[in-house]
Amino acid sequence: MSISSKFKKSTRQAYGEVLLELGKEKNNLFVMDADLSMSTYTCYFAKEFPERFFNAGIAEQNMIGVASGLSKTGKTVIVSTLAVFAPGRVFDQVRNTLVHSNCDVKIVTTHAGISVGKDGSSHQSIEDIALARVIPGMRVIVPCDAVETKKVIKKIVDIPGPFYIRLGRADVPIITHDKIKFEVGKGYILKKGKDVTLIGCGMTVFEILKAADILASDNINAEVINMPSIKPIDKNLIIESASKTKKVFTCEEHSIIGGLGSAVLESLEEEKDIFVKRIGIQDCYGESGLPEELFEKYGLSASKIAEKVKECLDN
Amino acid sequence: MSNNLIKILEKKSNIARQKILRMTTECEGGHLAGSLSCIDILVAIYFKILRHKPDNPDWVNRDRFILSKGHGAPAFYTVLAMCGYFPEDELLTLRKINSRLQGHPDCKKLPGIEISTGSLGQGFSAAVGMALGYWYDKKIDSRIYCLLGDGECDEGQVWETAMFASSYNLKNITAIIDRNGYQIDGKTEDVMKLEPLDLKWKSFGWEVKEIDGHNMNEIVDALEESRGRRVVVIAHTIKGKGVSFIENNNTYHSKPCNKKDCKKAITELCEKFELI
Fold first, then answer.
1. N or C: which end of chain B has fewer CB atoms below 10 A?
2. Closest Cα of chain A to B27: distance in Å?
């Protein structure tokens, strides 16, 4: 498939825009932020609907609690901050207030993963998918581009209950189509193949698509799956593809512990003779650098992914 | 407030204490002493102050009460049952498997619980969130009440919330602190000094009222006067209040009475009841 790398937009930008759209349609939609509205782009909503936007200041734990209580007065609340702060900094609040009380609060974070870049490891979240996933009943979605982000946000505001949505910082190419409907719990085959299965989410989807092209020139026919819905995950699709190729490679801008890779492995627990390799952050902190440099250094670039696939196939 | 009404509330408190004792002895657990310290406040709230409809817990214009000190569940469940939110005989199922009366309040399980609590410092946040929602909806006749423990004020989140409420100038919320002077590891002033607690709250933009948390008159007056203002009521209480051998005896923080001591306690309370 061909992707226009010329048109790029960050998922957080798309989020800011769709929030504004939804704010006009839904007058019971409220938004909160923790002093980062100009990074998360909730500032667009804040400017247009100041009476429905509440800044909690640099006090994320209270923000979660207030959002939870606010939602119990008949409102849908979206809260935003950087991925490294939610669920991380607010884990107990999300677990014991927000999700425990089944509040209609959606946590949408931005700046996930190492592509945050120069801010360095303190701001590079590589554990947020794992943390969100392990809370009973929390749904976890990682859109891969601006188009998918808008679909996801529009969808989840109409589904009551808690969600965790992970967005990035950098501009990314458009990969998905307007025409394909987003459904919670569904994965999408972007390219059919038979030799290996490549599964990604968020920023790595573009990388695995490019990796598939590299592998094709080595006669390795990769099936490429975009898996935005990490929980609930599209178990059937994973098993179908894995049964066909027998070799699955997951790729995420996240630790290999507890994220997409682990979720895929869990889906395959009862299947026989499937090889699975998790590509991701190898249980280490990130560091300052440019997103492209960091992807290369930490093994998330298309060339590194292709290399890893070939290495595993050779052994 | 009429003398008659005070006596009615005091009698209810006494009965409630007996139920708390029976309940915690039956389940062999539950936070007994901290429930006894706040029961007078809860009785005042549920039988005098709160505008609510037990047969319609979702009534849109209701006042709301949040038990941020979630371990006070035995006291909370007792007043809810006495009001008619659920049958009183269900009280003896506290903490038992499959019970709606969970160890800490679970809003998904029992009517009358606005939000799940148990992890300290969090219910107050949610209470302020509800106050914010009510303020936005211009529910001028409705109010939020939230009970915190004093040890709970160690939690930073409490102060984030206090700051938020002031910053947004919310005036439809009353916080009440069950100032019984103890936390689990001992006296609050030995574990983590809270004093001057009143000045701390004042500096965060709250009006402070200090009362005897077992004087029904003072409780009701303080709560009624807080209407239309942002108030914290520091209620000086005795942990284990009402039973001589439990008062200020911190071993009863989460230890109930055995059957023999429960009988002794009930006898004491019955004698006190006659004097009301």
1. C
2. 24
